[in-house]
Automatic annotation (TrEMBL):
Annotated catalysed reactions: DNA(n) + a 2'-deoxyribonucleoside 5'-triphosphate = DNA(n+1) + diphosphate
Listed InterPro entries: DNA_pol3_clamp-load_cplx_C (IPR008921), DNA_pol_HolB (IPR004622), DNA_pol_III_delta_C (IPR015199), DNA_Rep/Repair_Clamp_Loader (IPR050238), P-loop_NTPase (IPR027417)
Enzyme class: transferase
Domain DNA polymerase III delta subunit C-terminal intervals: 214-325
Domain of life of the organism encoding this protein: Bacteria
Pfam families hit by this protein: DNA_pol3_delta2 (PF13177), DNApol3-delta_C (PF09115)
A GO biological-process term: DNA-templated DNA replication
GO CC annotations on file: DNA polymerase III complex
Record's keyword terms, sorted: DNA replication, DNA-directed DNA polymerase, Nucleotidyltransferase, Transferase
GO MF annotations in UniProt: 3'-5' exonuclease activity; DNA binding; DNA-directed DNA polymerase activity
Protein name: DNA polymerase III subunit delta'
EC number: 2.7.7.7
Amino acid sequence: MVPTTQLAELSWLLPTYQRITQAFLSGHGHHALLIRSANDNGAEPFCFALAQWLFCEHKQEGQACGRCRQCQLFQHQSHPDFYLITAEKGKKISIEVIREVTDKLSRHSQQQAAKVVYIQGVELLTEAAANALLKTLEEPTDNCYFLLQTNVEQQILATIYSRCQLWALPLPNQEQGMQWLSEQGFQQRDEMQVALAMNYGRPFAAKISLQQGEIAQRLAFLRQFWKFYRSKNMLLLMPYFQQENPIPQLNWLEALLMDALKASLGIHSGWQCEDLRQGVTALAQELSALKIYQGLSIVRRMRTDLLSINGVNQELIIADGLIEMIEQVFEG
């Protein structure tokens, strides 16, 4: 859990946090907040900080005091009236989990203060669980608040959506992202710019990329893709896909083709592969926009198949996709 004071490090989220807390202080707060954000953008610390503020006995505009009993309990991860609901990996949030929490909400709070339910990934509720939650959202008990977090790309039930107040968390601008990464101990400005660009501006994802050396891995993979493109020999590229998780390589390839498509259409800004502009431009000059788009469609289908089809040889999916790319994009 992240104390409110640490939220100050996430400067791009502070204005939204302050607007929400000000709404409560002025008597216009909502009992159910739907927090939509890109992954790896700080939504979790944002929600934890907001939960602490809701508990705080001495609320101030834009921050919790950090000293009262409620704040201390929360910061030590022992607040009895805070309920965190998450789904196990690969599973949904069941109706039994929601019923257990709603049963506790029907009783008096143990601290005689607020009760806060934080659901990470509200889109993972089963239909039955969503319907059970809906009843509680329609008839909330006093001083009971819901923080429902979801990814911007996910769809949730319209009935849940309509009972909540929507707040969208913005991504940082480049300077904000660079400043945050520098505060995490990174110093190479060029690398930070590349890490942010290849992760769509998501700072936490950029941090992971820098820690794991993904910039060098991406460069080696895309250089090998160019050799594959020239030779039309898929065996040159196959070993460069990670056996356990080939999705990052497909993401890098998608970004390269998307930038090439933009270049082919005369769009020269907003590229993810700005650091590879020469190669992107060369690809755009050699392939038509239609061919690049066909390649992009193949890569996206490969990724969808790998993520959605269980028990299938992923090497076969990748090989089929590369053969299709040779036949339809490079040679067609």
